[in-house]
Amino acid sequence: MPECCEMLRNCGSLTFDNPMKKRWFLPLFLLALPATAIAQGADMPVPNPTFFDNPTFFDRIDAVFATIVEFMAGIFFFGQDIIGIPFIVLWLIVAATFFTLRMGFINIRAFSHAIYVVRGHFDDPEEPGEVTHFQALSAALSATVGLGNIAGVAVAIQLGGPGAALWMTVAGLLGMTTKFVECTLALKYRLVNPDTGHIRGGPMYTLSRGLGGKLRPLGKVLAIVFAVFCIPSAFGGGNMFQANQSYAAVSAVIPGLPSWLFGAIVAALAALVIIGGISRIGAVASALVPLMAVIYTLAALWILLANVTEVPAAIGSIFTEAFSPKAAIVGGFM
After folding, report:
1. Is the pTM above the cut of 0.70?
2. How far is 22 from 15, CA to CA, in rounded Å?
3. CA–CA separation, 41 vs 60, rounded Å?
4. Listed residue (174, 170, 322, 151) closest to 249, CA to CA
5. Coil, strand, or helix at residue 191?
6. What are the tens digits of pLDDT across the range 5-31?
7. From CA 304, how far away is CA 310, in angstroms rounded?
């Protein structure tokens, strides 16, 4: 989120000219979110009168966000009724396929090189930077494994059946090239503070600095839009999900644990890491992510061994059901 705020301050003519307005924009924007939600929630139709006879503050917030989610779903899932899959998913698939072919299957050719990079084969203590290659990978995986690789896979298989696993594998292989392109552009267009060596980068910098010529104004507009939407999404895009799911797991082991106490503990631990900046985030992630990966892998192997007699039939069902529309469109693409 600091990078998003910094981007808003550095988009040239598209930022506020009045320093006072620029200084108070972010605090007012953040304060306006709950205020707007409360104001709109007062006049919203009650979806369940039995449950909402006496709506609380959180009930009104939920009702507001339900309307927002419904509106956004209409945008993100546009094309579902026309071509069978959301247009945005088709766009990602086409882009990933194009980049994979255009770069000669870089996702396969450079895989061994990627392993060497992560192992530190090319590390140089004299090179500029705040984290090592492995710490950068660990920081990225810490936000990916779980929400996408576990919860996302479970949802896809539930929707599309066993055959969805094959298409998720194909999508993952193609997505490796998309990630390669994204990281390459981020490195190319990032900014390095000459005084402190701190790095500022991300899609907003790629958009504002990468699009040139007649597209430069469009790039700045898209950069600001991205940065603005990143700020509220930072409050709930992932962290709320993880906190909620972890409390559900812990409360099953420790019944009666107050949710506010658990949330306060998680917030305090997260603050200890985040306040230290990317260096501390990378250091902590590089210690926790390998342990997390080992536990996850061992748990998966234990489940497979405990149900070893069912494995051949499960693999067979993946391939026999993979080419059904339900598996490919509903499960895999979703």
Report:
1. no
2. 8
3. 5
4. 151
5. strand
6. 444 444 433 333 444 344 443 443 343
7. 8
End-to-end CA distance of the chain: 27
Cα-based angle 186, 191, 192 (whole degrees, multiple of 5): 120
- 257 and 250 Cβ atoms separated by less than 8 Å: yes
The tokens of 52 are what?
């909402």
Token couple for 188 = 């190319």
Following DSSP, what letter does each residue of 31-83 receive, concatenated? HHHHHHHHHHHHTSPPS-TTTTSS--HHHHHHHHHHHHHHHHHHHHTTTHHHH
- Residue 256, classed as helix, strand or coil, is coil
Adjacent-strand bridge partners of 192:
199
Q: Which tokens in the block code for residue 241?
A: 């999900």
Q: Is 54 exposed, middle or buried (0-12, 13-18, 19+ CB in 10 A)?
A: exposed
| Positions of E strands within 98-177 | none
The closest alpha carbon to 92, from 201, 170, 193, belongs to 170
Give CA torsion, residues 305, 309, 311, 317, to 10 deg. Answer: -160
Encode pLDDT of 221-264 as tens digits: 999 999 888 887 777 666 777 788 788 888 888 888 888 899 88
- Residue 192 tokens read as 């390095």
E-strand ranges in the chain read 191-192, 199-200
Rounded Cα distance, 145 and 137, in Å: 12
- Sign of the torsion angle spanned by Cα atoms 299, 304, 306, 307: positive
Rg (CA), the chain: 23
pLDDT of residue 97: 92
Nearby residues of 163 by Cβ (< 8 Å), 6 or more positions away:
317, 318, 319, 320, 321, 322, 323, 324, 326, 327, 328, 331, 332
**Cβ neighbour number for residue 223 with a 10 Å cutoff:** 26
